Amino acid sequence: MEEIAGWFRDNWFSLVQSGGIVAGLVFTAWSLRRDGRDRRTATRLGLAEHHRELWAEVHRRPDLARLLRDDTDLVLDPVTSGEEEFLNVAIYHFQTCWELSREGQLLSRTALELDARSFFSHPIPHTVWTRSRHWRDPAFVAFIDSCLERA
């Protein structure tokens, strides 16, 4: 017992110092985990806000009314520049969602596949996708094309 007391008397400072280091590491790990959760929440809220703004635009602008209709005749009434501009923003939004799902954040891959399949199967989005796919991320193009193949 006296050996333990002697060791403690000689090494108490190192013991306290080591305990402080361990406590600091535990606190840092806890803070990083909490910050990561807060960042994911902020990203989710930002994405939801962007999504809401994007689709509210469809309801505000009458020139975008036919975007999601399947009975559009693109030979008689081709894609307008306003539609193409809006859809390029929407495709960029899809790509952002896809990147987040690849990183395992926010979105399930299955839900994104269903959304992409539904959205890009309409004539106008499909046409704009076909026109613009060559300058997009090849992995994203492969993802959208695989969704469309399963349609």
What is the topology?
Elements: H1 2-60, H2 81-102, H3 109-120, H4 123-132, H5 138-149
Helix pairs in contact: 1-2, 2-4, 3-5
Please tally the β strands and state the result: 0
Distance between the termini: 76 Å
Order of helices and strands: HHHHH
Count every helix, treating DSSP H or I runs of 4 or more residues as helices.
Answer: 5
Computed Rg: 27 Å
The major beta sheet can be summarized as:
none
Query: Which class of secondary structure composition applies to the elements?
Result: mainly alpha
The percent of residues in helical segments reads over 70%
Low-confidence stretches: none
Mass-distribution shape: rod-shaped
Strand content: under 5%
Oligomer: single chain
Mean of all residue-level pLDDT scores: 88
Detailed description of the structure:
- The chain is rod-shaped, with a radius of gyration of 27 Å.
- The longest helix has 59 residues, at 2-60.
- The N and C termini lie far apart (76 Å).
- Helices cover 76% and strands 0% of the residues.
- The protein has helices at residues 2-60, 81-102, 109-120, 123-132, 138-149.
